[in-house]
Amino acid sequence: MNGRFRSKSKKRNPLEAPSSDTLPQIPDGSTVGDANLSDTDYARKRKQLLELTKELRAMGAETLIALPRIAVIGGQSAGKSSLVEAVSGINVPRDSGTCTRCPTECTMSSDAQTWSCQISLRFEHDEHARGASLVSKEAISFGPPITSKSEVEIRLRQAQAAILSGNPSYSAFAQMSAEHLRELIKSDRDVVKFSRNIIVVDIYDPDATELSFVDLPGLIQYESEDMISRVRGLVESYISEERTIILVTIPASDDLQNQQAFSLAEAADPDGARTIGVLTKSDTLTAGATGARESWKNVLEGKKDQLKHGYYCVRLSDDAERARNVSRSEAQQIAAQFFNQVAPWSEVEDRTRFGIPSFVSNISKLLMDVIEKALPQLRVEVTKRLASCERHMTQLPKPLTTDPTNEVLARVTAFSSELRSAVNGEGNNKGFVQQNRASYLRFKGDIRGTAPDFRPFANYSQYGRPLTPDGSRDGAPQVGREHVQRYKTMDLEDVRQVIKESTGWELPHHVPYDAQLTLMKKFIALWQAPAEECFESVFATLAGLVDTLVHKHFERFKHLEASMRSLVAGHLSNCKGQAFQSLHDALGLEEHPIFTQNTHYLESTRLKWLAHYKNVKNSPSQYTRWDNAMESPDDEYNAYADYAEPTPAPRAIKVIPPETFTPELQVMAEVRAYFQVSYKRVIDHIPLTIERSLNRTIADSLQASVIRDIGIGSADAAERMKVLVSEDPALELQREQLRIEKNRLVEIQRKLGTFWV
Question: PROSITE patterns in the record, alphabetically (predicted)?
């Protein structure tokens, strides 16, 4: 199949309608659209269908569901305005350049005794950022009904100016002259060049054929890229809908392949199933344009650039004919004579493809068939949309009906209760406690890592770090905790030096107590950093929990949520400072005095370590380093070299007599034993201090603090609480929009449910 469009026979076409050979045949020279059908059952059915779509649009249905429609598109100077005039029988504004600057929705009805026209405005988009007050899904009448066709053109100019200005006082434009409107559009900075808002034109003409279409702004070329893109986007948004029939106006003076409108239609409707070509300016082809004449003849006969519903060719009134106000019937007679006498148009066999009457009659029938076939699916879509709307409404919080003070108090109480439950680990609120236990476990590992690193050798650089008496790797850093400061490695010579520096008036062979104190205070001093880090970790977890709960319990009322965040943050800050001091007080208990009543464990641990140090000292060959690698009977233990302190400059290896360094070994054992006692004490005491002074204090005191500071008991409490629980304007707007949408959908559902043809 030749042509740019391709047809897929198996794909269901939403615009499926009888083929052209079953459409009404219009005799050459006919002057009336289909007056012979006006009193038939089909005509009455057509009126009912058109009235239905008109009422649905008036309800704002088109913003909720895709209604069947005809969209007229084309480039500048493609004859689109002339086509609209010929079809509708009214005059539209004509200026140099672009005339149509917003969508114009035109509906023609024969349900009238005399001719009249009503022009309305429908603001569906906030083009001027004026807020939702101007936006309305329903049409607003722009002036009284028009009974003279001569008044339509100026009213359309006024309506378009009102749309482009976005001025809420749109009725003022109804008094402006054409010249005043032109100057306003040129000079007023608030006037936009194009708008998505709609002019609605309802024509009541006893001689009309029932039809509805939307005339879109012409595709432009000589404007800014932004304007060109906006107009193209507007056109694409209309023609992309599967229930939209696309009428493309194509000037015969130009090649079809050069038409941007045709390219957009092809992109939106690649099968050509809902696109109709309308050939305008057919009288501009000269006798010498033989190639163009033959090409257009082939198009009309379906031999190239095929479309399912084909092409139509029209002759529209020229400037001279408009100047002498030729009547509609006279214009149709002139066109019929032209098509019957001038080649190549006179050579085309299917005469229903020529002239406005045939064109209007056929596309009217096509539109009505599309509307009728779409009705069942429209009912389904409205039902689904209504169910979705109702579901969203139920998900929104209901409007406040309780006393504001009671509402605030109830929310503060619920918030505080859930916080206490989480801190205590009650019910299903285990997450907070579990996170804290993980922090305390890391703290335990950090404190274990500060264990005194005593090496019972004369020069520890020659040996690896021994295992503990129970065979574990003492002091190994946890994964990710390498930043925690460790106890400096000390060998026998280092301990001897400490004893020497601590000796005062002691008698010979007496080890000064200050030597042990010095070595014990070294590991105690290392505990502050991991304790503070543990504290900050727990506080961060608590702050995160509180933040989550504040949002959960107060997010509905933005003023209350903001106030609670401020009050809670202040209370947390005060409690944190006090708890931090309690932490340091707890650490200070370990600094002085060096004391324990757990003497049995202290003594048994001292003896165990003393024996261990002696055994290691007497078997140094098991720990000797060779080439910076450690050799040990336990191969797995070799990896422990990674945890050793950097090796200092080696000292000469000494052979240690069996009974030398006895005082040093005793000091090592006594210090290490006290570490074990105090380590077991501090890994419990610090977490308990944090829990009591921080978590439990905040959980127990926050409710009373917030109630006091928020002013529930103050003299102006009622007014303050009313402000705090005032609803978020965005939520109010959302609820109101859903309410309006639901009401509109209910009306649409009722209308569709009661309509039968």
Answer: G_DYNAMIN_2 (PS51718), GED (PS51388)
Indicate if the pLDDT at residue 185 is higher than 80: no
In a domain, 91, yes or no: yes
Task: Give 629's pLDDT tier (boundaries 50, 70, 90).
Answer: very low
Helix (H, G, I), strand (E, B) or coil at 36: helix
Distance CA(159)–CA(117), nearest Å, equals 14
Report d(CA 118, CA 428) in Å as an integer.
66
Q: How many CB atoms lie within 10 A of CB 729?
A: 9
What domain count does the chain have?
A: 2
Residue 103 belongs to domain spanning: 43-128+137-389
Last residue of a domain, one of 373, 389, 405: 389
Length of the chain measured in residues: 757
Domain-located, residue 752: no
Q: Given this model, what pLDDT does residue 213 score?
A: 94
In the predicted structure, residue 644 carries a pLDDT above the cut 90: no
Residue 326: pLDDT band with limits 50, 70, 90: confident
DSSP per position, 673-738: HHHHHHHHHHHHHHHHHHIIIIIIHHHHHHHHHHHHHHTTTSTTHHHHHHHHTPPPHHHHHHHHHH
601 vs 629 pLDDT, higher one: 601
Q: Are 67 and 53 in contact (CB under 8 A)?
A: yes
Distance, in Å, from the CA atom of 574 to the CA atom of 581, rounded to the nearest integer, reads: 11
Question: What's the 3-state SS for 555-592?
Answer: CCCHHHHHHHHHHHHHHHHHHHHHHHHHHHHHHHHHHC
